Amino acid sequence: DLQICQHRAPTCCTKKMEESYQAAVRRERTQSIQALNFELKYMIVGHITAFQEAFESLLRFAENRTSSLFETAYRPMAKEAAEPVKELFTDISLYILGAETTVESAVLRFFDSLFPLVYSRLINPGITDLSEDYTECLRLTRQDINPFGHYSKNMVTELSKSLWASRMLSQALSLGIEVINTTEHAALTKECSRALVKMQYCPHCQGLTLIRPCVGYCLNVMRGCLASVSELDAQWREYISTLEYLTNEMAASHDLEIALSGIWNSVNEAILHAQLNGPQLSATVDKVCGQPKQQEGNLSSANIVPVKEVTEAQTFVMAHASLNNKRREFISYMKRSRTFYASIAERLCDGDLVMRDSSTCWNGEDVV
C-alpha cells in the first residue's frame, strides 16, 4: 500500500511511515530555509536597530541644541517654547519611522505654535492677557502674514530632502524582513513533499540509512520545490539596488545630519526676522485680532540677540560617524546577498544533505 517509496525489493516501510516522512520533510525544509534566512534577517534587524539608534541620537542632539537656543537667546519664552520644540522632533522621528505625516505639516505646526510666543514675549513683551482665543487668532494669522519670512519654507525644503531617504530606507528595511518571513513559511505542495520523501527517506525503506542523494538529483528536486521562492530573484536584486540608492542619497548633498543640526539656526533666523519686522506685524495683528491688554508703561521690545554658531558637540560627531559606518557596512553585506533567492536550491543541497565525496549516491530509484 506504499504511495511514494514503491520498490521491487522487500521494504520495511508502511503507509503510516510515509505520512510521518512527509511531515518530517515539511518541518526540515522550513528549518533549513529559516537557517539560511537567519544570517540575512539578523543583519537587517541589527541594522534597523542601529539606524534607529543613530537617528534618535542625532534627533536628541538637534532637539537639545534647539532648546538651548531659547534658553540662551530667548529666555522670556524658553519655558513655553519647550513643548513646541519637543513636538517638532517627535513628529520628525515619527515621519522617519513611516507614520502618516509630512515634514511640512510638522514644521508649519511648530511655527504656528511659536508665533504667539514670539509676538507676546519678544515683539510685545507687555501683553498680559494671552487668552485662548487671542492665541488661536495669532496662530491662524501666522499663516497669512508669514512673520518668519522664507526661513520656515526653507526649513521645510531642507528637511524634506534629507528626511525622505531616511524614511524610505526605514520602510525598505521593514519590507525586507517581511519578504524573508513570508518565504520562510511558503507552503510546500503535495508533489514537492512527495519528491522530498522519495529523495531523503525512500532509501531508508531499503535499509540504506547512510546513502545520501546525488547532487544533481537534489538540485532538480529543490529547484522544483522552490520555484515560487526563486521567482523573487529579479525583485530581490532590484530591492538591493534600491537600498544602495537610498543609502547613497542619505550620504549625498541632502545629508540628514547637516539638516538636523541646522534646525536651531533656521529657527534663530526666523525669530530674528520676526523681531526686525515687529512694528509691521503688530499693526497687522491689531487689525485682525484686536489689541490685547498691556501692562502699564509698555515694556520695550526684548533686545535682539544674534546667536553665533557653536562648535559641534562630540555626541553629534560620534552619531554622524556611526551612521556613516553603518551605511557602508550594511550596503556592502546586502550587495553580497544579491543572489540569495537565485541560489537558494544550491545552498539547501550543500553540506550534509547530499553525498559529495563518495562513488555511490541515491538517484530516486536506486543506488548508483
UniProtKB/TrEMBL annotation:
<protein>
    <submittedName>
        <fullName>GPC5 protein</fullName>
    </submittedName>
</protein>
<dbReference type="InterPro" id="IPR019803">
    <property type="entry name" value="Glypican_CS"/>
</dbReference>
<keyword id="KW-0325">Glycoprotein</keyword>
<dbReference type="GO" id="GO:0016477">
    <property type="term" value="P:cell migration"/>
</dbReference>
<dbReference type="Pfam" id="PF01153">
    <property type="entry name" value="Glypican"/>
</dbReference>
<keyword id="KW-0732">Signal</keyword>
<keyword id="KW-0449">Lipoprotein</keyword>
<dbReference type="GO" id="GO:0005886">
    <property type="term" value="C:plasma membrane"/>
</dbReference>
<dbReference type="InterPro" id="IPR001863">
    <property type="entry name" value="Glypican"/>
</dbReference>
<dbReference type="GO" id="GO:1905475">
    <property type="term" value="P:regulation of protein localization to membrane"/>
</dbReference>
<dbReference type="GO" id="GO:0009986">
    <property type="term" value="C:cell surface"/>
</dbReference>
<dbReference type="GO" id="GO:0090263">
    <property type="term" value="P:positive regulation of canonical Wnt signaling pathway"/>
</dbReference>
<keyword id="KW-0357">Heparan sulfate</keyword>
<keyword id="KW-1003">Cell membrane</keyword>
<keyword id="KW-0336">GPI-anchor</keyword>
<comment type="similarity">
    <text>Belongs to the glypican family.</text>
</comment>
<dbReference type="GO" id="GO:0005576">
    <property type="term" value="C:extracellular region"/>
</dbReference>
<keyword id="KW-0654">Proteoglycan</keyword>
<keyword id="KW-0472">Membrane</keyword>
<comment type="function">
    <text>Cell surface proteoglycan.</text>
</comment>
<dbReference type="GO" id="GO:0098552">
    <property type="term" value="C:side of membrane"/>
</dbReference>
